[in-house]
Write a structure and sequence with these properties.
By secondary structure, this protein is an alpha+beta fold. The protein has two domains: about 10-70 and about 110-180 and about 285-420, FAD/NAD(P)-binding domain; about 180-285, D-Amino Acid Oxidase, Chain A, domain 2, CATH 3.30.9. It has eleven helices and 20 strands. The strands form four sheets. The protein has an eight-stranded mixed sheet, covered by helices on one side. Strands 8-2-1-12-20-19 form a six-stranded mixed sheet. It has a three-stranded antiparallel sheet with strand order 3-7-4. It starts with 11 loop residues before the first strand and ends with a helix. The model has no long low-confidence stretch (mean pLDDT about 90). It binds flavin-adenine dinucleotide. Flavin-adenine dinucleotide binds near residues 19, 54 and 163.
Length: about 425
């Protein structure tokens, strides 16, 4: 017996706030199910992704495949080999060789704009509304949610999907006590032609992290002759720039370079070759785990970065956002657009997954701190090793090989098993 057999389908007006990977993927998935009207409201005047590259591994490929988008994403650099290096001595610390998996697609690093345009190509015309910044929302009970935009327009929706990123207005309206804080990490990212740096070191053509104890520089080709630098530095947030808000803002080259003076000369030279105006700065914020991803009697649901403010940990947040969109659509379809049943089901599938991520990060931080303490007065090189070895050999397939289609099937089996 299926548990969802009897009720009739309800027509649902869905407002998706945000046109990032989460919003676009959710719109694609929801447009494939019956009796749903979807609109995406995006604050930007033009849909573009600030930043540089993005990694697409099996979990993201699986989700893109289910949405019918995978074949549209054709650009990128295969990342079969990934290095971790000591940025001061040049010592190779780990070298991971990835193997082909059942997705049949190579792990890649691509330009963020390529993922964005591949998703956009599958969003039905007329759904995306630009220059629409959500200002506030009002709960109108059975009538839905009223959405007020900064341009003075108002609309009403039965379901609001908060896909508006880590600084989510949807989340901050419905979860009024929620707060994100600067983690101390600042990230600087850029793309430049590989030809401009290829004389510096052959190892720069291999995707890799070059570390000091509190900073790293990430190098990777991203396809189409472009090469990415994503560098980051941690400074104690109690002392440094606690109110920092920068997200994708241009920054002086000298400011970026000043954080990486301990590195090998060829790394410093690579940073120096970034054309003026090429860097964008991102201040990393994070917030605690939510107890629920739904609010206002199942009229609000969060997907992507708004639902788990982990500040890019795991380097797979776009994948998580796309998985969220897929599961939300499956849950609504299964429960014939009855949000009182579909949203708790979404919560039951996605919340424990995000909880596991929070728990994993906390336990890794504890282990790293304990190891550092045990080392007493560690040298620079010991600190670098300690920074990267904690995950060595640990099975992270629950993230990077996650098969969201199989997760859904299993959830349905469990649901129906309970009721037979
Ligand atoms: C340095 C760094 C590296 C990363 N590397 C990777 C990686 O390699 N692989 C990976 O998968 N992920 C990576 N991530 C994470 C990934 O970028 C995010 O997880 C992903 O973009 C989240 O998608 P989203 O749609 O939830 O939010 P976002 O991409 O943040 O999109 C939110 C959208 O909402 C819009 N918006 C915000 N507020 C409003 C409003 N009030 N009204 C209307 N619109 C609004 C914004 O303009 C934006 O378009 C990285 C993140 C960082 C910071």
């Amino acid at each position: 017996m299926t548990v969802n057999g009897n009720s009739s389908r309800r027509h649902l007006r869905v407002a998706i706030i945000g046109g990032g990977p989460g919003g676009l993927a959710t719109a694609i998935a929801l447009s494939k199910i019956p009796d749903v009207t979807v609109n995406i409201y995006e604050q930007a005047t033009v849909l573009r992704e600030a930043g540089a590259g993005i990694s697409i591994g099996s979990n993201t490929w699986n989700a893109l495949e289910l949405l019918g988008v995978a074949d549209t994403l054709t650009s990128g650099h295969p990342t079969w080999t990934v290095l971790n290096m000591n940025g001061r001595s040049g010592e190779e610390l780990t070298r991971r060789e990835k193997v082909r998996d059942e997705t049949g697609r190579p792990p890649i690093r691509t330009q963020r704009t390529k993922l964005q345009s591949a998703l956009l190509a599958h969003v039905k015309p007329g759904i995306l509304q630009l220059s629409k910044r959500l200002a506030r929302m009002v709960d109108k009970g059975h009538e839905g949610v009223e959405l007020y935009f900064e341009d003075g327009t108002i609309t009403t929706a039965d379901l609001v999907v908060g896909a508006d990123g880590i600084r989510s207005v949807v989340r901050d309206t419905a979860w009024t006590d929620y707060e994100i804080k600067f983690t101390g990490t600042t990230i600087w990212r850029t793309l430049l032609p590989w030809d401009d740096v290829k004389d510096l070191d052959p190892r720069f053509e291999i995707t890799g992290w070059w570390h000091t104890p509190t900073t790293h520089v990430y190098f990777s080709p991203v396809g189409e002759g472009l090469w990415e630098i994503a560098s980051r530095a941690w400074q104690d947030p109690k002392i440094h720039s606690a109110n920092k808000k920068s997200w994708g803002v241009p920054v002086e080259n000298s400011h970026v370079e000043s954080h990486f003076t301990e590195y090998l000369p060829q790394i410093r030279e690579a940073l120096a070759r970034v054309p003026p105006g090429g860097w964008r700065e991102f201040a990393a914020f994070a917030g605690p785990e939510l107890a629920k991803l739904t609010a206002w009697d199942n009229k609000i649901v969060l997907v992507g970065d708004s639902s788990h403010a982990l500040s890019g940990a795991f380097g797979s947040g776009a994948g998580f956002a796309i998985e969220d969109g897929y599961i939300l659509a499956r849950a609504l379809e299964y429960w014939k657009n009855d949000t009182s049943k579909a949203l708790p089901l979404f919560d039951a599938i996605r919340l424990p997954y995000y909880s596991r991520m929070y728990a994993h990060l906390a336990s890794e931080a504890d282990k790293r701190a304990a190891k550092l303490k045990a080392l007493g007065n560690p040298t620079f090189d010991e600190q670098v090793k300690n920074k990267i070895i904690t995950d060595g050999g640990k099975d992270m397939s629950w993230i990077y090989q996650n098969d969201i289609g199989a997760v859904w099937k299993e959830s349905v089996q469990q649901l129906e098993g309970t009721y037979t």
